[in-house]
Specification:
The protein has five domains: 1-67 and 182-243, P-loop containing nucleotide triphosphate hydrolases (Rossmann fold), CATH 3.40.50; 83-180, no CATH class; 252-298; 324-525, Rossmann fold; 536-635. 46% of the residues lie in helices and 19% in strands. The chain has helices at 42-50, 83-88, 92-109, 114-133, 139-149, 166-180, 196-207, 220-226, 245-279, 286-298, 364-372, 406-410, 420-429, 446-460, 476-488, 500-506, 527-558, 575-596, 605-635; strands at residues 2-13, 16-27, 31-35, 57-62, 68-70, 184-188, 212-216, 229-234, 237-242, 324-335, 338-349, 353-357, 379-384, 390-393, 464-468, 492-496, 509-514, 519-523. The protein has a six-stranded mixed beta sheet, sandwiched between helices. The two termini are 46 Å apart.
């Protein structure tokens, strides 16, 4: 169903349009990733969808009856309200219907005339149908599911909102829009302030929703898991692509190559015609030259295509270190009574690209500081290899002097081999050029400071880069450039990052602080390797748990008196029959997911959408099948 249509939207500042001629449609179940370089106008366009008066031209049409909701960046809440109360306020309309339902029920119980009973009964039935169709009798359960999923422990549900941090309050805003479930959701950086586990929950939640949504995010792994279409805002125009972020990148590059070939072919044709006209504009061939000139005047010139690109980051040459960069044996770290990790052993070999990930406060940065020699372990030992030259990028970028100009902050004072021109060329390769080079570091944006810090590491000539959250503050295209630079770097990388896409592209070894395991885990591979291991563990746990769970229920049922036996929710079927249906559905999910991995499917939009719908429909059936199976085991006797 069409939910939103936008026709020829335009917005400008002064004489320069920010965007113009922007048109698109959003349908139910569309999950659109909205990308574009910083300053292209993504946030402005989202605001204009909510407040069309901001536009200089064009029309925003919201389908009749459809509701539109936006994830706000700034939290404003009533004083002293608890997070549970505020989250539940997302259901104001349903809560009002609940109150009305109770009032009508009370009036119905005291009605004295047949006409009054008939009118109240009709009203009661309508309210009951509304509440039942919108799951209005399970509001507390829905609030609990979302608050738990977004990382709010039960003990905090009845604390006053003003006792929570800004990041926690923004998570509450996210909870409210998820619970309100407007037909069109505009989500600006929804995964900000979320750890990987919570982000994974949010991804799974969003892909199950029937709403249409437009998502602005720098988290490329999130976009890959959630989105089904991609809109790119660039050069004042919007381009539409089927598929998630990875498919968008492939299709965008293919489109750019095709348009560039068309441009080059036309350019060559025009140059040949112009050369002929110059040589034959007089004499016997003048008439032909004049004819070609008229033809050339009618040719619609193809503009040279452009595409968004990041800075040309290069991390420089690396002096060869010893084969073993770090040998760590039985590392344990405690702060008072708090144990961060214990008996952690690993080797980091020359050329490895090691990623460290885990929830906040688990000890990732502490492990980096131990490797750097800035923090002693409680027990265990760290041996640093031969000819190891460390370069450290801390996530707060303190390595740069705020008071110095950018040029001087990046230029080591004792390095006589560098010249001002070399330093300016280096900064230019990191996308830092012009007047900004002579401005103080404290005036730079987060992204500019991050790129400047990376440039400083390059000058220092480190052969082991130790990076703490290097993609913070970088836009998507700067992240791409950094990833290419890291892959080309011949030294060793040790990196703490929450950016799963970055780790997927660069890491070949992971140290995962997994709260579920209760200990760090060494994984030889990238993030997808870890996800596969984690999924296999969960699957094994589910499979090993099913028989035990079923047996426990059978024993529990057998000890009850017959009258306590619960009623069936599903029709009678043998447990084995339901189990066969579960196996078939799970196999179908695997088959459909494999089909979506084939790049060819994205060239056929109807086939792609049909496959996606079938996948979501099949996944939606599984919870009921699992519940039916448990009921069959429990009640069939």
């Amino acid at each position: 169903m069409l939910l939103l249509s936008c026709i020829d939207l335009a917005r400008g500042y002064d004489a320069t349009p920010l965007f113009e001629g922007v048109s698109f449609e959003l349908f139910a179940r569309d999950r659109v990733g909205f990308v574009g370089p910083n300053g292209a106008g993504k946030t402005t366009l989202l605001k204009a969808l909510v407040e069309p008066d901001l536009l200089d031209g064009g029309e925003v049409k919201l389908h009749a009856g459809a509701r539109l909701g936006v994830l706000r960046q700034v939290a404003e809440f009533p004083a002293d309200r608890t997070i549970f109360q505020e989250a539940k306020s997302a259901f104001d309309e349903l809560l009002a219907a609940q109150d009305e339902f109770i009032r009508v029920a009370e009036l119905l119980s005291t009605a004295t005339t047949e006409l009054e009973r008939k009118q109240l009964s009709a009203r009661y039935d309508r309210l009951h149908e509304q509440l039942e169709s919108q799951d209005g009798f399970q509001l507390d359960n829905r609030v609990e599911e979302v608050l738990s999923g977004l990382g709010f422990p039960k003990a905090d549900w009845h604390r006053a909102i003003n006792t929570f941090s800004g990041g926690q309050q923004r998570r509450l805003l996210l909870a409210k829009i998820l619970l309100a479930a407007p037909d069109v959701m505009l989500l600006d950086e929804p995964s900000n302030h979320l750890d990987i586990k919570t982000t994974r929950w949010l991804e799974d939640y969003l892909v199950r929703q029937p709403q249409g949504m437009i998502v602005v995010s720098h988290d490329r792994y999130f976009l890959d898991r959630v989105t089904t279409r991609t809109f790119e805002l660039h050069d004042r125009k919007i381009s539409l692509y089927p598929g998630n972020y990875t498919q968008y990148v492939r299709l965008r590059d293919e489109k750019h190559e095709r348009l560039l070939k068309e441009y080059e072919a036309q350019k060559e044709f025009i140059e040949k015609q112009e050369e002929y006209i110059r040589r034959a504009h007089y004499g016997q061939l003048a008439k032909q030259a004049q004819s070609r000139m008229k033809t050339l005047d009618k040719v619609e010139r193809v503009q040279k295509p452009t595409k968004v690109s990041g800075p040309n980051i290069q991390l420089g040459d690396a002096v060869r270190s010893g084969d073993i960069v770090f040998h760590c044996e039985d590392l344990t770290k405690r702060f008072g009574d708090k144990l961060l990790f214990e008996n952690l052993s690993f080797d980091i070999l020359r050329g490895r690209r090691v990623g460290i990930l885990g929830p906040n406060g688990c000890g990732k940065t502490t492990l980096l500081r131990i490797l750097l020699g800035e923090e002693p372990p409680t027990s265990g030992k760290v041996q640093r290899g031969h000819l190891v030259y460390l370069g450290y990028l801390d996530q707060h970028l303190k390595m740069l002097d705020d008071e110095k100009t950018l040029l001087r902050a990046v230029w080591p004072e004792d390095d006589a081999s560098q010249t001002e021109q070399k330093m300016r060329d280096l900064l230019g390769s990191f996308g830092l050029q012009g007047e900004i080079v002579d401005q103080p570091v404290k005036s730079l944006s987060g992204g500019e400071r991050s790129r400047a810090a990376l440039a400083r590491l390059t000058v220092e000539g480190a052969n082991v880069l130790v990076l703490d959250e290097p993609t913070n503050h970088l836009d998507i295209w700067a992240c791409d450039a950094l990833e290419e630079a890291v892959k080309a770097f011949e030294g060793t990388l040790i990196c703490v990052s929450h950016d799963r896409y970055f780790l997927n592209r660069v890491a070949d070894m992971l140290i995962v602080f997994d709260s579920d395991l209760g200990r760090p885990e060494i994984v030889f591979g990238n993030y997808d390797t870890y996800e596969l291991l984690r999924a296999n563990r969960e699957q094994a746990a589910r499979e090993s748990g099913k028989p035990k769970k079923a047996q426990a229920r059978v024993e529990s049922v057998s000890n009850r008196p017959e009258k306590a036996k619960k009623k069936r929710k599903y029709p009678y079927r043998k447990a084995a029959e339901v189990e066969a249906d579960i196996a078939a559905a799970e196999a179908r999910v695997t088959e459909l997911e494999a089909m979506l991995q084939d790049g060819e499917i994205y060239k056929d939009a109807p086939r792609f959408q049909a496959t996606l719908d079938a996948l979501e429909e099949t996944k939606a059936k599984l919870p009921a099948l699992y519940e039916h199976w448990e009921e069959a085991v429990e009640l069939n006797g």
